């Protein structure tokens, strides 16, 4: 309680707590931006020798970290990263520069490459058609980058390029949907099992 003529310390405590929370939040926001987002504006590609040309260590397949190619930021080579991954050689490059992330959805009269009934990897609770989605129009669209064409996904070529390589997929439920989609595409040429 306050006595006559003496103001309470309560408003000062509230202001002090507010300022502490405000500056603490601002510091955490700035720190997380610096830590997580400041390096995310560039693109990372491998430069130097392809991994297939790097000699293995004496003990077998183990390699030292210094044996791997360094990582550099280069915008010019960014669009060739997927092509390099599929072919495994630096000499193969996309003839034209193609920004895969700038484009539009266009009608696709051929329809989807797989359906919920043809792929066993789609979890029942994520099966839109079985769970009552009334429209099927969304199945007849495809992504078209501006200024170039995307070739259809070649599952056999992808599996050949990824043979003897280890992959780990880490992400949220949206990313899990993308992995299920990849498995559906790959299961058209090779049977496989899903491990969680």
UniProtKB/TrEMBL annotation:
A single Gene Ontology CC annotation of this entry is: Golgi membrane
Q: Which UniProt keywords apply?
A: Golgi apparatus, Membrane, Signal-anchor, Transmembrane, Transmembrane helix
Q: Which residues cross the membrane?
A: 18-37
Cellular localisation: Golgi apparatus membrane
Q: Which residues form the Trichome birefringence-like N-terminal domain?
A: 96-149
Topology relative to the lipid bilayer, per the entry, is: Single-pass type II membrane protein
Instruction: Note the superkingdom of the native organism.
Output: Eukaryota
Query: Which Gene Ontology molecular-function terms are recorded?
Result: xylan O-acetyltransferase activity
Q: Where is the Trichome birefringence-like C-terminal domain?
A: 150-190
The entry assigns this protein to a family as follows: Belongs to the PC-esterase family. TBL subfamily.
Q: Which PANTHER family match?
A: PROTEIN TRICHOME BIREFRINGENCE-LIKE 25, PROTEIN TRICHOME BIREFRINGENCE-LIKE 9-RELATED
What name does the UniProt record give this protein? Protein trichome birefringence-like 25
Species of the source: Elaeis guineensis var. tenera (Oil palm)
What gene does the UniProt entry assign to this protein? LOC105047787
């Amino acid at each position: 309680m306050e006595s006559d003529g003496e103001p309470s310390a309560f408003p000062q405590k509230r202001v002090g707590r507010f300022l502490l929370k405000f500056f603490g939040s601002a510091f955490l926001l700035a720190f997380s931006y610096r830590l997580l987002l400041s390096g995310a504006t560039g693109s990372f590609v491998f430069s130097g020798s392809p991994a297939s040309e790097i000699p293995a260590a004496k003990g077998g397949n183990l390699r030292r970290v210094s044996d791997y190619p360094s990582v550099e930021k280069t915008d010019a080579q960014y669009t060739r990263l997927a092509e390099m991954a599929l072919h495994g050689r630096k000499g193969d490059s996309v003839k034209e520069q193609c920004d895969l992330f700038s484009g539009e959805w266009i009608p696709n009269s051929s329809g989807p490459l797989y359906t919920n009934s043809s792929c066993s990897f789609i979890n029942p609770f994520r099966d839109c058609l079985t769970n009552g989605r009334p429209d099927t129009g969304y199945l007849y669209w495809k992504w078209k980058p501006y200024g170039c064409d995307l070739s259809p996904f070649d599952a056999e070529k992808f599996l050949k390029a990824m043979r003897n390589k280890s992959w780990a997929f880490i992400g949220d439920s949206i990313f899990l949907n993308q992995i299920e989609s990849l498995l559906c595409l790959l299961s058209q040429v090779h049977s496989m099992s899903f491990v969680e």
